[in-house]
Structures are given as structure tokens and as C-alpha cells.
Target: Membrane-anchored protein
Amino acid sequence: MSPAQSASSMLWSKVPEITLFFWIIKILATTVGETAADFLNVSLNLGLTGTSVVMTVLLLAVLTAQIRSPRYIPWLYWLAVVLISVVGTLITDNLVDHFGVSLEAATAGFSVALIATFAFWFAKERTLSIHSVFTRSRELFYWAAILFTFALGTAAGDLAAESLQLGYWVSAVLFAGVIAAVTLAYVFLKLNAILAFWLAYILTRPLGASLGDYLSQPVANQGLGLGTVGTSALFLAVILGLVTYLTLTRRDAAPVSD
Model:
């Protein structure tokens, strides 16, 4: 078999390779999830319920296209991540604002839901590696886990910044420090790669939420006052540029491995 034939027959993962680009876009998408939810809810006067309905419908449409796609398509994958970031934020906001669930209870509840998702995923597939996401079952587990990480991250970020009154900037530094500790544990202490990935993935959500709030909130609320429109537009522009680059270069396309 020629190299070209071998490459064409290789099985490719439905999710991107974990590179620096992945983490940059992930944090930017996380921040957009926080600011875009606030923009749609407050600035456009859609209200929490209206925003939740609109974004959930959009997410389901994009996720359907993503799951039906036979391969990883950068713009489709990252559009799904941005939308699931917004919906994850809205789920937490609905529980807290409409149903009176405390941030402590929401954080604990989503932690249990995420652990349960991982348990069912591993019980069925015997792996939690994102390098082996190429079947319908594994992809469904993957997106369920992603949704719970965003909802959990929103609750944990708000808990740190608001309930514990650490402020947005201090919360961002705190979560960034924990991510750095996980990275060092992976590099120097040989922390399991799958565990390190999911810990970092979970922690980037409250990091991005805290950064989004810090940039967009008024100075009176300990923010920089850039507003939800400016912050969302800036970060979406950067995401679009990076995703366009990855689409053209295919630098983050990952072959399947166990």
C-alpha cells in the first residue's frame, strides 16, 4: 500500500489533537460562553428562558451535524464547543436564578453528574481517552462530559468569585494556578495523561468564566468595563482566526489511538 493510500485509510478521531491551539481556543470559547450568555440574556432582553431555548435548539442542530460528520471538521467542532459553553452556563444560571439552587449545591451536583458520566463511559468503552473518540457511543459520552464540565465550571467559578467573594481577577489567578499545578504533575510526576487532561479541561471553564466576567463587568463590580459585546466580539474574532488556520493546515487532526 502506498503512503497516500495508507493515509487515506487511516482512522481519524472525531475530536482535535491536544495542542497549544486546543487550549487557547478552549479558554476563549469558555470566556465567550460566559459573556455571550449575559449579552443575549440582558443586552438583547431575551431573558434567561428565551435565551436558553434559542441556544439549546442551535446546539442540538450543530451537535447533530457534528455527530453525523464522518471526520473532524474544525469549524463544526469548535462551533459546537462555543454553543455548549453558552448552554452549560445557562443551565447553571437557570438552576440558581429560577429554581433557587445554591452555587454550592450546583457545584456538587454537576460534579456527581460528571463523575457518573465518566463511570458509564468507562464501563461501556473501557477507556476515557479522547484519542479514541471515533464511534457514535464514545462521541455521545464525550459531549455529555463536555456539557457537564461547562455547567460545573460555571457554578464553581461563580462560587469562588461571588459567594466566596474572591473577586473575578483573584479567581482567575487561582484557577490558573491549579491548572499549572496539574500540568507540572503531568510533566514531572507522571500524572496519568487522561486524568490530567480532564482535570485541566474542567478547570479551564471557571478560569474562562472568571476572565470573561473580569473583562466585561463594570469597574464598580471589580471588572474592566469592556462590556459583553466587546469581549464576545474580540474573542470570537480570535477563535475564527485560529479555527481558519487549523482548517487550512489540518495541524490538529488526530489519528485514532488507544
Notes: Residues 136-163 form the longest helix (28 residues). The chain has one domain: 17-248.
